[in-house]
Write a structure and sequence with these properties.
single chain, 164 residues, alpha/beta, 4-stranded parallel beta sheet, 5 helices
Amino acid sequence: MAVKGLGQVDQKYDGSKLNIAIIHARWNSTIISALVDGAIAKLKEFGVQEANIYVETVPGSFELPYATRKLYQKKLKEGVVLDAIIPIGVLIKGSTMHFEYICDSTTNALMRLNETMDIPIIFGVLTCLTEEQAELRAGLKPGMHNHGEDWGAAAVEMAVKYNC
């Protein structure tokens, strides 16, 4: 199984003026923590100031779309305009259809938010068949790649390129 990341970023983007939020589920907390840490590390690598990285939690991945929109509105009321949001969740297949329903509905709802909110909403939801797959994608196994880093890089690139 090949687990690769974003690959080479096309240029070094300056994220020093960006406000970026991460909203993450609490299910599968070990994997989530690694992904969130990876995203934050990459945001900082691109110059995003720690004070401009906002992190909040929700119970599970199904709650991510609603919370993403509400977090954006909350920050606006506080006078903070977010340039991108990274919803992070981990869905691992079990023995029922629940996995398929949550994956499909969460994916579609997050995609729609890109259009309705008009800011980059980075798809930071792992949809894995096994816990081991999720651990690999969170960089928790030696030599594997943390996809949270990709999501942090994508947030900066999308915010710099497309937020006017």
